[in-house]
Write a structure and sequence with these properties.
The complex is a heterodimer.
Chain A (H helix, E strand, L loop, with lengths): L5 E9 L4 E2 H4 L19 H4 L16 E4 L3 E3 L5 H9 L3 E4 L4 H10 L2 E4 L2 H13 L4 E5 L4 E4 L2 E4 L4 H9 L3 H6 L2 H9 L10
Parallel strand pairs in A: 1-3, 2-4, 3-5, 5-6
Antiparallel strand pairs in A: 1-7, 7-8, 8-9
Chain B lengths: L4 H8 L1 E3 L6 E4 L2 E5 L4 H10 L9 E4 L14 H17 L2 E3 L9 H7 L8 E4 L13 E4 L2 H10 L1 E4 L3 E8 L8 H12 L7 E6 L1 H4 L3 H9 L8 E3 L4 H7 L8 H12 L11 E6 L6 E3 L7 E3 L13 H14 L14 E4 L1 H4 L2 H11 L7 E4 L4 H9 L2 H8 L2 E2 L20 E4 L14 E4 L2 H10 L10
Helix pairs in contact in B: 2-5, 6-8, 13-15, 13-16
Classes of the chains: A alpha/beta, B alpha/beta.
The complex binds iron/sulfur cluster.
């Protein structure tokens, strides 16, 4: 996973709420068995509408997505995260996220930033007024900055550390393999196996 | 202070706890299907890792499978299914492939084999894993990175979610189902109401539900945003489990039941949040919009966006009505439907098929009607009761087991502009096929709708 410390980039205002993962990447795209090539599936149905914001040339190359509340609800498909990253997004800012999507994002190094609705709307308005405006997302300082304004956001220490170091969870857990073995020896004897 | 059911099950599974870190949680059962696993197995191979506990892992083919006999014609779908077969063989994981007597939707087969038991932790790369919480365990959906993590370590690092009680007071009126109850709960608390919580469904109306009904309720916890939903085990749970292939037997059964009986929220335990809902006031419920929180009683009308005070909800309602091709004020019972789907991990069990058959017996459908059993064992049981004949006589299609029209990944889809009454769990834009319009309903309402061609409550059938 690519480490994340601070990122500055242009932003796309997506003024929709309840952006479920079926919209982020429709099911037909989930048939792939590789981890790459999902950028064309990002918002595939919505992108057929020429007036959809991602089709606006002014926002090409933007790397921060500013969404209405409840981004990434629904299906657990991590393909949603892959599609956003492969399209070029490094950060999604919203007032609320679906739990599984947020988890998946932090496993992959896509930063989900929770800010109050008013702040998200302030950022959306700024990106609408001037698509070239740049926003800085500083994970080290837990802060989002726009010009002279700044807002702090919350993220737990552990996840922040893991993102900043770009660490893979599995490697971290395998350090505790002995604890897992001890636990396994004490499991209730009636628990089922699939064999 | 006492503990909630969720806290008890969680604590029982903590392998390691350290300050400032998530708990490392042991996973008792890992369910796998073809869609969210290929990249996880690739990851294992690339890192030279293996599956720690293939004996706590089980795989099935469900999302891509066609529900008519024959091979998978879409080459991309076929590759995905073949990839699962290769991975299962390579890592020694039990697989129920298409055509196998045990094949079915991942959340139907765990309970039917008795693999889903009280007090367990169960995960799957699928958000409807919450279904299994109906037995009193903690069950939740994960992404592919976490699938890989569980394959490699049989654990997951996670912070314990907060706890929420949904107290269902009163009794469900006759003709009102578990599906109506959960749709009403989601409409009440919203699609984000459960975010960050494990929900425990409690109260008399919940205790009276069958295991099938409890699974329907827990299944849709994710639609309220919750990480998981659970119901404390009781005699109904034990009776369902007894004698199933993987349920404990003999002395182990007695020991297990004794422990399972301790899996209830202590009287003095405190939930982080409590929501009450009066079951006795409920009536058949349908969704009118494009998220599962946009629902209303079938006896009411399509709402007007002006009814929503919150500007974000108002614009969501406007967008939803446009997508759904609905006009505010139209009575929901006048909305015409072209396709009816009975099936999915929400309502694809034997009890659901019986309920639909009871309504279709001696009647004729006027819509395209797909009846899709959730598993091959459900199919077999239904056929032994003659339900397949009831459906065929009514003019409905009786299919093989799979996810089918719950999502547009296999040949069963809606065409743009087509409208369905569906017993599945998601009415998102395009969920059942690009441009398709979905109304979520109970099996009973689905069957009655198939008879009239309009959204219909069974009580309103002649
Ligand atoms: S039936 Fe639907 S919700 Fe259930 S596992 Fe299949 S696709 Fe997912």
């Amino acid at each position: 996973m690519e480490a994340f410390t601070t990122h500055t980039g242009r932003a796309v205002p997506l003024r929709r709420s309840n952006v479920d993962t079926d919209q982020i990447i429709p099911a037909v795209w989930l048939k792939q068995v590789s981890r790459t090539g999902f950028e064309n599936g990002l918002f595939a149905a919505w992108r057929e509408d020429p007036s959809f914001i991602l089709n606006n040339p002014a926002y090409q190359g933007a790397s921060i997505l500013l969404s209405g509340p409840d981004f990434g609800t629904g299906s657990s498909r991590e393909h949603a995260v892959w599609a956003l990253q492969q399209y070029g997004f490094r950060v999604v800012i919203a007032a609320r996220f679906g739990d599984i999507f947020r988890n998946n994002s932090t496993k992959m190094g896509l930063l989900p930033v929770i800010l109050p609705s008013e702040v998200v709307e302030r950022l959306q308005a700024a990106a609408e007024a001037d698509p070239t405006v740049e926003i800085t997302v500083d994970l080290a300082e837990r802060e989002v900055r726009l010009g002279s304004e700044s807002w702090s956001f919350e993220i737990d220490d552990y996840t922040r550390w893991r993102l900043m170091e770009g660490l893979d969870d599995i490697g971290l857990t395998l350090r505790h393999a002995d604890d897992v073995a001890v636990y396994e020896n004490g499991r209730q004897p009636w628990l089922p196996t699939t064999v | 202070m006492g503990r909630t059911l969720a806290e008890k099950v969680w604590e029982q599974h903590v392998v390691r706890r350290a300050d400032g870190e998530p708990d490392l949680l042991y996973i008792d059962l890992h369910l796998i299907h073809e869609v969210t696993s290929p990249q996880a197995f690739d990851g294992l191979r690339m890192a030279g890792r293996t599956v720690r506990r293939p004996d706590l892992t089980i795989a099935t083919e469900d999302h891509n499978v066609p529900t008519v006999l024959g091979p998978i014609s879409d080459p991309v779908s076929r590759t995905q299914v073949e990839t699962l077969r290769k991975n299962a063989a390579e890592f020694g994981i039990r697989l129920h492939p298409m055509g196998d007597a045990g094949q079915g939707v991942v959340h139907i087969i765990g309970p039917q084999f008795g693999l889903t038991q009280p007090g367990m932790t169960i995960v799957c790369g699928d958000s409807h894993t919450s279904t299994h919480g109906a037995f009193g365990g903690i069950a939740f959906g994960i992404g592919t990175s976490e699938v890989e993590h569980v394959l490699a370590t049989q654990t997951l690092p996670a912070y314990r979610p907060k706890t929420m009680a949904i107290e269902v007071t009163g009794e469900l009126p006759v003709g009102v189902t578990a599906k109506d109850l959960i749709l009403a709960i989601i409409a009440k608390i919203g699609t984000s109401g459960g975010q960050g919580y494990i929900v425990e469904y409690r109260g008399e109306a919940v205790r009276k539900l069958s295991m099938e009904g409890r699974m329907t309720v827990c299944n849709m916890s994710i639609e309220a945003g919750a990480r998981a939903g659970m119901i404390a085990p009781d005699e109904t749970t034990f009776a369902y489990l007894k004698g199933r292939p993987h349920a404990p037997a003999d002395e182990a059964w007695d020991a297990a039941v004794e422990y399972w009986k301790s899996l209830r929220t202590d009287d003095d335990a405190v939930f982080d949040k409590v929501v009450e809902i009066d079951a006795s006031t409920l009536t058949p419920f349908v969704t009118w919009g494009t998220n599962p929180g946009q629902g209303a009683p079938l006896g009411s009308a399509v709402p007007s966006p002006e009814e929503f005070d919150d500007p974000i909800e108002r614009s969501a309602a406007e967008r939803a009505l446009e997508y759904m091709g609905l006009t505010a004020g139209t009575p929901l019972c006048e909305v015409p439907v072209d396709t009816v789907f009975v099936g999915s991990c929400t309502n694809g069990r034997l009890e659901d098929l019986r309920a639909a058959a009871d309504i279709l017996r001696g009647r004729t459908v006027v819509t395209r009607t797909l009846i899709v059993p959730g598993s091959m064992l459900v199919k077999k049981a239904a056929e032994e009761e003659g339900l397949d004949q009831v459906f065929k006589d009514a003019g409905a299609e009786w299919r093989e087991a799979g996810c089918s029209m719950c999502l547009g990944m296999n040949p069963d889809t809606l065409k743009p502009g087509e409208r369905s009454a569906s017993t599945s769990n998601r009415n998102f834009e395009g969920r059942q096929g690009k441009g398709g319009r979905t109304h979520l309903v109970s099996p009973q309402v689905a069957a009655a709708t198939a008879v009239t061609g309009k959204l219909t409550a069974p009580a309103d059938l002649a």
